[in-house]
Amino acid sequence: MERADLKSIVESLLFVADGPLTLQRLEEVVEGSSRDEVRSVLQELQAELDRERRGVRLVEIASGYQLRTPKVNADWVKKLLGGRPPRMSRATLETLAIIAYRQPITRAEIEAIRGVDVDGVVGTLLERNLIRAVARKDVPGRPFLYGTTPEFLQLFNLKDLTHLPTLKEMEELTLPEAPEKSIPLERTEES
Amino acid sequence: MSTNVQLEIFEGPLDLLLHLIKKNEVSVTDIPIAAITEQYLATLELMQNLNLDVAGEFLVMAATLIHIKSRMLLPAGDDEPDEDEGIDPREDLVRRLLEYQRFKDAAAELEQRELLTRDVFTRPAVTEQAPAQGFREVSLFELLTALRRVIERLPKDDAHEVILEKITVREKMTLILDILRAGERVHFEALFSEVKSRMEIIVTFLAMLELVKMRAIRIFQEALNGPIQIEAAVGIDQATEKVAMEGPEEEQNGTSGS
């Protein structure tokens, strides 16, 4: 297959797909082209769309590839589509962040960090398919352990979980207005 | 200075504390506990006056703060080699505040990302929750026919079954959910392959219906009179949880909370 044909086909597949397409899936569909060839045309396509500042870009999302509009065009797209994007409350975002970074995690563990009951929020996140029960913890009561879903990666434009922004280390954390002096967490005996 | 608090919606006691610490421009690692406690309690009172629903967690934290305050007031007695000696009574709270702050920051960072349907868009999916192409829903009649086939295949023992099967619908539901979570699709009859008694068949069938009702599973077939298949549906996670929370017993042991 000609490289130009392959690129064209791959672009069509990306266009019609309902979600991110994995390299494996693309390879299965096109047949006869090696994974490296597919990857190579994907990269070419991605570079081309970026270079020409096109209205759709190729992004790596949830371990696959997906065509998405660039952020600069967001206002026009929203105008066309109408409706308001679903807003996420702070409680939802915080809980989601805890689950994302600490997965798999139980409800009680989330509550310990947030200091409040999270039943409602966890329910909402499950409903929105952003988290799922992944296993059960081997402690009394066998509570569910939650983790994030591919939809979570899609929503937050993430290639995979390793691409989550790095959590700040405890030591780096001081509140914005806090004065310079900070006392180390681990106090010595004689303090 | 105290009651002049601008009321935001606080996500919880830790959130409120962080807010007060920030407002007072003090370090989280060196909280002036007396002042902060006073402001914390004032805010709580205000919230109550405004008839805001003050969650129990806020009160627990109030107690914690008062406890810490009292411990800070006690002179550090050198003669008592208590296990608490030398440990700042605020330490545990500081740790919790910092941990919480970390995730607040992380949440803010997530929010800054290019969010789908806010900043970036994809072509909307054409079909939503429609059964896969060429698949059709199964009628109850077809299901019953399939059920009868399963029952008829049971070895016809002349002897009466007297073994009391203790399997409940709920247990079967969990079992089916486990199977579906593992694999993709399951044949209707495969769910009955291990089943040994008529009673168990009925229980399995009821469990299936219950799960359909919960939107945890979908029952369909590829063609008229084709094999009936079952797969996980949108509600499977909630269902899994619900089934588990209600416990394996038929009497639901009253779980507290919502």
The total strand number of chain A stands at 5
| Unreliable parts of chain B | 1-6, 127-133, 248-258
Output mean pLDDT of chain A: 86
Judging by the overall fold, what is the CATH architecture of the largest domain in chain A?
Orthogonal Bundle
Query: Ranges of chain A with pLDDT <50 over ≥5 residues?
Result: 175-191
Specify Rg of chain B, calculated over alpha carbons. 29 Å
Q: How would you portray this structure in words?
A:
The complex is a heterodimer of chains A (about 190) and B (about 260). Chain A has 2 domains: about 5-80, Winged helix-like DNA-binding domain superfamily/Winged helix DNA-binding domain (Arc Repressor Mutant, subunit A), CATH 1.10.10; about 90-165, Winged helix-like DNA-binding domain superfamily/Winged helix DNA-binding domain (Arc Repressor Mutant, subunit A, Orthogonal Bundle), CATH 1.10.10. In chain A, the strands form 2 sheets. Chain A has a 3-stranded antiparallel β-sheet with strand order 3-5-4. Chain A is an alpha+beta fold and about 190 residues long. Chain A has 8 helices and 5 strands, in the order αααββααβααββα. Chain B has helices spanning about 15-25, 35-50, 55-75, 90-110, 140-150, 170-180, 200-215, 235-245, and strands at about 135, 185, 215-220, 230. In chain B, α1 crosses α4 (about 90-110) and α6 packs antiparallel against α8 (about 235-245). Chain B has 8 helices and 4 strands; from the N terminus they run ααααβααβαββα. Chain B has 2 domains: about 15-110, no CATH class; about 135-245, Arc Repressor Mutant, subunit A, CATH 1.10.10. Chain B is mainly alpha-helical and about 260 residues long.
Short description:
The complex is a heterodimer of chains A (191) and B (258). By secondary structure, chain A is α+β, with helices and mostly antiparallel strands. Chain A has helices spanning 3-16, 23-30, 35-51, 74-81, 90-102, 107-114, 119-127, 150-155; strands at residues 57-61, 64-68, 105-106, 131-136, 144-148.
